[in-house]
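#struct-pred
JK: can someone run the complex with NAP? inputs below
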Amino acid sequence: MTENSGNIVYSEDGNLVVPDFPVIPFIEGDGTGPDIWRASRRVLDAAVSSVFGDKREIQWLEILAGEKAFNQTQSWLPNDTLEAIRTHRVAIKGPLTTPVGEGIRSINVGLRQELDLYSCVRPVKYIDGIPSPMVRPSDVDMIIFRENTEDVYMGLEWKAGSSTAQKIIDLVKSEDGRDIRPDSGIGLKPISRFGTQRLVRMAIEYALEHKKESVTIVHKGNIMKFTEGAFRTWGYEIAQEEFGEKTITEEELWEKYDGTIPSDKVVIKDRIADAMFQQILLRPAEYGVLAMPNLNGDYMSDSLAAMAGGLGMAPGANIGDGIALFEATHGTAPKYAGLDKVNPGSLILSGAMMLDYLDWKEAADRVRIGLAKAVAKKRVTYDLARQMEGAVEVKCSEFAEEIVLQM
Ligand code: NAP
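RT: done, structure tokens with the ligand placed:
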């Protein structure tokens, strides 16, 4: 296949070129995956067709991962699947079972690392009428850029008593004179300048493009100085080196601009992770774009999602340079598999992010409008219905039809 042949999305001078009938691979996912994928595909196709008529259409291509892949190919994540995503550059997936057992890696982590999808992007924006524990949930409008390839999630861990664990314990003693208890399991937490700076760069570019007021670097650098602390230092460094004209620090905001953010600048600030968990609850309006290492980002993404409707409504994407995999952020919810019951909102909104990424923004907006109106009509799936007074519980597929009707 040549780069620009037919219906393949390709990259030219760093920009994505999207044909009118792009082939987009999808992984339907395990458990409730097929239910929410069917619902999502219905909504995405309807949005594209309602905006572009017969001028544009996604050509869906099924690729395998998870249980379906294992049953057919004996591999949880076949090479063909990775190759198809590399070739087509944009793909979408439902949730996948994480096989339990030693030596088997999470498929999600595998996809992120194999394809170098270094940024996990999770927007959290409150939709009117969604149940929320917040007093003023409409203040919640944040987007997390979580580093996806480093930190303790690299899987560099050794069992207590193993020879590698022992060697590291011995090395620390001989190099640093410090004792680690001999019965310790050992894990490594690598955080690099390269990994940090490409992530923070993506967050700043997003803030500039979407006219967000600030990018907050979230870290635990007061304790872990050479990993999380370095993440902070390298984050400020790239802001200064590559975006010096367009960014200011919080100190500069007060010293030079008397606390008023100039319309053409983005404020770069940083917060310690534990304090940040308070900030997102107490002062969400002060934060727009958040950049953080892998583990902090994992926790904070779910915490933020809970403030705006829970995991059933939280979209997400894993993005690298010129390649992106959009995904439902929740798991397979196996007890509801095949019941046409769960909320497809997460995958539908991830699909809207995908349409944005393809620069089919009117179709993306159509999806969000349809979903917001369906919620306003209180015709929602069980997870929302049980928290909304006067709501009518509808099935997963019926929720999708309501969205299509409302768009
Ligand atoms: P889960 O599948 O996310 O489900 C936990 C609970 O969250 C469900 O019981 C349900 O709560 C609620 N929930 C999840 N999806 C929902 C939806 N679409 N609509 C409404 N409610 C939803 O987490 P898990 O049970 O811990 O994990 C199950 C499997 O998924 C595991 O194999 C895990 O490894 C995998 N997993 C995959 C991904 C991924 O592919 N990205 C992410 C996380 C976990 P109620 O019962 O209260 O209604």
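RT: quick notes.
The mean pLDDT is 94.
Residues 33-52 form the longest helix (20 residues).
JK: thanks, will look after standup
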